Amino acid sequence: MRQDNSSDLANQYYDLATDFFEYGWGESFHFATMHKGESFEHAIAKHEYRIALKLRIEPGEKVLDMGCGVGGPARNIATFTEAEITGLNINDYQIQRARELTKAAGVDHLCEFVKGDFCKAPLESETFDKAYAIEASCHAADLSKVYREAYRMLKPGGLFASYEWVMTDKYDPTNPYHKQLKEEIMLGDGLPDINSIETVLHAVKSNGFELLETADMVEHSPVPWYSVMQPRWTLADFKITPLGRWLTHVALMGLELVGFAPSGSVKVHRTLCKGADSLVNGGKEGVFSPMFLVVARKPGKPTQ
Amino acid sequence: MKLLTHNMLTSSIIKGVKKGFPLGIAATDIKVSEVDFNPDFIKKMIPKLEWSAICEAAESIGHLDGLPKELAPDYETDEDFLKKAHHVIMEVEIKEGDLICPETGRKFPIKNGIPNMLLKEDEV
Ligand SMILES: C[S@@+](CC[C@H](N)C(=O)[O-])C[C@H]1O[C@@H](n2cnc3c(N)ncnc32)[C@H](O)[C@@H]1O
């Protein structure tokens, strides 16, 4: 079954990549719009608050995070809004990590985690006031299933927001370079496919949602979102600069040789670096966006 | 996992299962820890819950702890009730054990406070 293959693909990818992400990126595994002089942490947090704003999350609401990673966004949005957030994730390693980090941050009264598949979620229908997915639905082989599940679990009148990974309208499937960029991103980031904007909008509407807003947030990012993966020379960003990457790589190779780093680390690291490069290239060419924002509403009169 | 979360889990993802709610609980490790009492939060949360499932679940793990099984019409102003509700839905946590599908008996392990609701390919 294609579905299960895509879950496996995501799982294998994240089993290996999680530690690298946390080390190089922090506790939120997504991109962000960036402004001049803005710190990376600030930009990341702002990208999450935008979700809270678009969803109009209120204290005491029940909110679902579909594909929650290690819970960075859930913790941040929970402390910001005082809503009760349930994080759903298919990856065992990440979800254990999510719980540890949540306890350590002292927000476990607002965030809980469930291991499960967002294409077939083990959660009751009409349960959540709001739901969101941050750069997660891209892992589904069939995006429509994610929207179908979000719709099912929302109460009438409930809102859903997502940052989708898309090939933009500038993407020309007959252009070999474009095709190559797309394939490199899929390979480097463990994805079954990358959706067009049309596919995304179809998933929204065909599942009954009322579309409230779409925006390619790339167009609202004066400093390109991919610049965080390009050479910069501050110490904090060192790890994701080419030199830093290379040194990390060499260091890992050493550790792996003497048996400290899990074997395969070097390979994963190389894959991640390639993934990063293909994202930068896709971003520069304007054919790829990791932040196509969708805000949608489940029709109906809000209930308790 | 708190009972708040148990209250929204279902095993209806299993092929052939209709309702799959509420899941049975066989807990082997329960932890009760103090959480700051926020009456407004609890007041907002209560109408969002399947109250009978909360009480049933709490009772089955021996932690009903004096919580009334019926929601009184004036519960919002009943501080004692709100505190008991707060205790049951926020402070009681199942760390290890199993959730059990009410229709098939399929067990979903809770490990380190996280319920594993993933099914095998042939179960969906
Ligand atoms: C790029 S990460 C984003 C994580 C998180 N939203 C964040 O911004 O930090 C994508 C996440 O989706 C999760 N995921 C992928 N496929 C999934 C599925 N079928 N069900 C649930 N989660 C899934 C992955 O395990 C991973 O945590």
From TrEMBL, chain A:
PROSITE patterns: SAM_MT_ERG6_SMT
Gene source species: Ridgeia piscesae
Stretches assigned to the SAM-dependent methyltransferase Erg6/SMT-type domain: 13-299
Protein name: Methyltransferase
GO MF, one annotated term: sterol 24-C-methyltransferase activity
A Pfam family per the record: Methyltransf_11
Keyword Transmembrane: no
Family: Belongs to the class I-like SAM-binding methyltransferase superfamily. Erg6/SMT family.
InterPro entries noted in UniProt: Erg6_SMT_methyltransf (IPR050447), Methyltransf_11 (IPR013216), MeTrfase_SMT (IPR030384), SAM-dependent_MTases_sf (IPR029063), Sterol_MeTrfase_C (IPR013705)
GO cellular component: endoplasmic reticulum
Top-level taxonomy: Eukaryota, Metazoa, Spiralia, Lophotrochozoa, Annelida
Top EC class of this enzyme: transferase
Listed EC numbers: 2.1.1.-
Record key words, sorted: Methyltransferase, S-adenosyl-L-methionine, Transferase
Gene Ontology BP annotations: methylation; sterol biosynthetic process
SUPFAM superfamilies: S-adenosyl-L-methionine-dependent methyltransferases (SSF53335)
UniProtKB/TrEMBL annotation, chain B:
MF annotations from Gene Ontology: protein heterodimerization activity
Pfam families, alphabetized: Trm112p
Lineage: superkingdom: Eukaryota
Keyword Nucleus carried by entry: yes
GO cellular component, one term: nucleoplasm
CDD domains cross-referenced by the UniProt entry: Trm112-like
Database matches in Gene3D superfamilies: 2.20.25.10
GO biological process, one term: tRNA methylation
Annotated compartments: Cytoplasm, Perinuclear region; Nucleus, Nucleoplasm
Keywords of the record: Cytoplasm, Nucleus
Family from the record: Belongs to the TRM112 family.
Protein name per its UniProtKB record: Multifunctional methyltransferase subunit TRM112-like protein
Species the sequence originates in: Ridgeia piscesae
